[in-house]
Amino acid sequence: MTFRNGLASLLRPEDSVLVLIDHQPYQLANVNSHEPTMVVNNTVGLAKAAKAFDVPTILTTVIAERGGNLFPQIADVLPGQEIIDRTLINTWQDPNVVDVVKATGRKQLVIAGLWTEVCVAMPAIQAAGEGWDVTVITDASGAVSSEAHQVAIQRMIAAGVNMMTWLALAAEWQRDWARAEQAAKITDVIVQHSGGSGIAYLWEQQLLNTQAPKAGAGA
User: pTM for the full model?
Assistant: First the structure.
């Protein structure tokens, strides 16, 4: 096995492309590996992070007429963008999706979707075998059980696929807080979608903007 390490192995926004797969009502209804609300929250955070770093995001569903439309919270991040609807279970077998990804000219393929064990694992394993640098965002994905999620992760790791969470990815894309424009954008995403980390940041700002009491005040 070739180990993934070294500076060049880290993800870069200019080389990344994000594919969000089948975040639809039918799939979410049987997600039991995660709390469903968190899957939605994390996926929206991921989509907003990609937008903040100008990472192209491809949106795709499977038979939306029956399985339901893409969650509006995600579609609203990229208003007006075409959502590619498929019949193929394996997204990476659909040329309508693959051609759009290839057209970006990027080779760091980031995937999240429902379900992990099917609609994420199949394209991730195929794309990795075709030479793509594939990363799966585990907390913006979900499976029908915790076992199914974990087995899928193990299977993908064995195939050479990288695993990350959405906030870790955002930090890797940011890389340097001196990138002030992106830092401001990603901070807004963290405040909205990163729970305790967002609240802690707001608290920090509150403390920094609160005038210290003068000596002897209130005595």
Answer: 0.92
Helix-helix angle 166-174:180-193, to 10 degrees: 170
Q: How far is CA 112 from CA 59, 83, 163, in A?
A: 10, 15, 10
Token couple for 65: 């007429």
Please, which pLDDT band fits residue 208 given cuts at 50, 70 and 90?
confident
119 is catalytic: yes
- Omega cis (within 30) before 115: yes
Residue among 47, 119, 136, 137 flagged as catalytic: 119
The owner of tokens 């899957």 is: 39
Query: Is 214's pLDDT higher than 80?
Result: no
State pLDDT tens for residues 84-143. 999 999 999 999 999 999 999 999 999 999 999 999 999 999 999 999 999 999 999 999
Between the CA of residue 40 and those of 60, 138, 140, what are the distances in Å? 15, 12, 7
CB 134 within 8 A of CB 18: no
One DSSP character per residue, 137-160 reads EGGG-B-SSHHHHHHHHHHHHHTT
Count of beta carbons in the 10 Å neighbourhood of residue 109: 26
